[in-house]
Amino acid sequence: MVGLLIEMHHSTILVLALQSQWLMMHTNIILLSYASLLCGSLLSFALLVITF
Fold first, then answer.
1. Is the torsion defined by CA of 12, 21, 18, 24 positive or negative?
2. Which UniProt key words apply to this protein (predicted)?
3. 8 exposure class (CB count in 10 Å sphere: 0-12, 13-18, 19+)
4. Residues 13, 4, 26, 14: what is their CA dihedral angle, to the nearest 10 degrees?
5. Does residue 7 contact residue 18 with C-beta atoms inside 8 Å?
6. Rounded Cα–Cα distance for residues 19 and 30 (Å)
7. Nearest Cα to 19, choosing from 27, 29, 11?
8. Contact 50/43 with Cβ under 8 angstroms?
9. Taking the alpha carbons of 31, 35, 41, 42 in that order, is the dihedral positive or negative?
10. Is 26 exposed, middle or buried (0-12, 13-18, 19+ CB in 10 A)?
11. What ranges in the chain are assigned the alpha helix state H?
12. Residue 23 in contact with residue 7, Cβ under 8 Å?
């Protein structure tokens, strides 16, 4: 992840919005939220399978 951040700093052809520091934070938070939703879905599905 640090390597990607360094790559983003070296790249000058990107649009200004893609060079923002907020992009990395939002990407990580969205990835973490999708992972937690997936874990919750799998756990609830496993509970349904075990119960019935």
1. positive
2. Membrane, Transmembrane, Transmembrane helix
3. middle
4. 0
5. no
6. 18
7. 11
8. no
9. positive
10. exposed
11. 2-10, 22-51
12. no
Q: What's the token pair of residue 17?
A: 């919005």
Structure tokens at 16: 């200004």
Structure tokens given for 33: 């939220």
Whole-prediction pTM: 0.60
Tokens matching residue 15 = 């649009």
- The pair of structure tokens assigned to 20 is 């923002």
In a structure prediction context, what are the per-residue pLDDT tens digits for the chain, which is 52 residues long?
666 666 666 656 767 777 788 888 999 999 999 999 999 999 999 999 999 8
